[in-house]
Amino acid sequence: MINENLIPKIGVITDIRKDTPDVKTFRVVGTDGRKLFEHMPGQCAMVSVPGVGECMFSITSSPTNEEFMEFSIKKCGCVTEVIHSLEAGQQITVRGPYGRSFPVEGEFKGKDMLFIAGGIGLAPLRSVINYIRHYRNNYGRVVVVYGARSKDDLVDIDEIRTEWEKEPNFEVYLTIDRPQEVWDGHVGFVPAYVKELGLDPSMTAVLCGPPIMIKFTLAGLLELGFDKSRVYTTLELRMKCGIGKCGRCNVGDKFVCKDGPVFRMDELDELPDEY
Q1: pLDDT of residue 274
Q2: Most-buried pick from 16, 42, 94, 218 (CB within 10 A)?
Q3: Splitting the chain (275 residues) into consecutive groups of 10 residues, what average pLDDT does each group show?
Q4: Structural domains in the chain (count)
Q5: β-bridge partners, 54
Q6: Is the dihedral angle over the CA atoms 140, 141, 147, 150 positive or is it negative?
Q7: Residue 170: inside a domain, yes or no?
Q8: At what angle do helices 211-224 and 190-197 cross, to 10 degrees?
């Protein structure tokens, strides 16, 4: 029996949005104009430019979007540089979905949710947040704490301002690392801002961002009384082939492509400090 997620599907780029100086969001459909395949929040897909190479990216759009898929991609290497040069109408290939998703229909259901992101780390969380927005009655209070180096580096800022901030029982706290004349909001690093906000430790937290941000944010959450069994993150950057066969994604006895990329922090405590 053929495993469909191993077969690349031809995708057509229908729209490109420039989010920051080095991040673009690509909207993709199949050659038939329909969504390529179904997924759950937190899962990833392998995006390929034939003749150039392929990379694993989180699927940024929510599964509740039935028309297309989106990928927010930061330019940081040879393949992503070529992807950034593509235009609407051009084709790529996409295979997936891969990995363990966030437990939106399990542990998250009925819970108050805290999302903490830094920079491009918002991309994997956007899928979860918009899934919760779609099924709003199934979840409690939602708090988003998001920071970046500057105002220009805040990904999806238009959606945050025009949609997320207007949701009922939905709080958004934005911060940038250093003062800017065009910014009248909070200034400071995400870990310190999280401690400053004094968030409710009974919430279920989801973290994504640079490793140093996650390290200090987790320490701050523990000081506030959060339990590691209710703190989640994603190790999608460790994903390689997508199915755990090449062995390059292993952390101890776990394969991020197969056992992750979503992990609870107490699960990571059982692994070598290699992630």
Answers
A1: 60
A2: 42
A3: 80 97 97 96 94 94 96 94 97 94 95 97 96 97 97 95 94 96 94 95 95 91 94 80 70 74 86 66
A4: 2
A5: 48
A6: positive
A7: yes
A8: 20
22 CB-near residues (< 8 Å, 6+ apart): 74, 75, 76
Contact predicate 178/187, CB 8 Å: yes
Same domain, 85 and 142: no
**pLDDT at residue number 2:** 60
Q: Which two tokens stand for residue 180?
A: 């800017």
Q: β-pairing, 142-148 with 113-118? A: parallel
164 neighbors 144 (Cβ within 8 angstroms): yes
Per the DSSP assignment, residues forming a β-bridge with 117 are 146, 208
Closest CA to 186 of 226, 156, 145: 145
Residue among 121, 137, 109, 128 nearest 40 (CA): 128
3-state secondary structure of 53: strand
Specify the CATH number for the domain of residue 67.
2.40.30.10
Peptide bond into 261 cis (omega under 30): yes
pTM (global) more than 0.85 = yes
- Could you tell me if residue 250 is inside a domain? no
Per-residue model confidence (pLDDT) at position 247: 67
Q: What is the pLDDT of residue 275?
A: 54
| Identity of residue 106 | G
Asked if residue 242 belongs to a domain, the reply is no
Q: Do 76 and 139 belong to one domain?
A: no
Burial code of 221-260, b = ≥16 C-beta within 10 A, e = fewer?
Answer: beebebebebbbbbbbebbbbbbbeeeebbbeebbbbbbb
Domain that holds residue 81: 4-98
Whether residue 132 lies inside any domain: the answer is yes
